[in-house]
Amino acid sequence: MSQPITKTQEKLLKLLGERVDSIRKEKGLTLEQVGHKIGKDRQSIHSLVKGDFNPSYIYLKDICKSLEIEISELMKGL
């Protein structure tokens, strides 16, 4: 059974989402385009950007692939 996330973890998920959104916008991509590249719908990407869920490592790797960046670049400053 999973544990509820802490306030600190919640803040980190929001920062991660903001980072994804910033990079997505820098690349000129819509939420739909990012989702399409990895077989996810717009709502899934929107939930990530809003920090509404804790993505798996594989999910993050897919996001990075769609943004054409390395995961280390995504994690800078988090």
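(ticket continues) Second input and output from the same batch:
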Amino acid sequence: MRFLLDTHVLLWTLASPRRLRKKTRDAISNPDNVIHTSVVSAWEIELKRALEKLDAPADLTTALQTTGLTLLPLRLEHIAGLRDLPNLHRDPFDRILAAQARIEGLILVTSDTVLQRYPVQTMAP
């Protein structure tokens, strides 16, 4: 299976994996699964850290490299995919994650109930 972690799920994975359900931790650690994190999440984390709205690993690059997660780049087709999504969420980071999951055929791991309403397969963390 192929998953995309929402930003908060990524942070939990890095700093507090016990916040995740056992089923989710098992899915993330299963070598048969491919677990993606988006560069969009890294961007969101760094922006919110700069605004002092978020506590995150000091060296996000190193933290991500040690996890074995697959980094999903932002491509033009992801941006174009925004026009196919209903206007449910005001957060641009969440909207692009939904578009990426939809276009790439990924299961979006999120506890955000608004994101779960998009036409994309989701899994609660």
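Agent notes: The chain has a mean pLDDT of 94. The chain is about 40% helix and 15% strand. Closing as not reproducible unless the customer responds.
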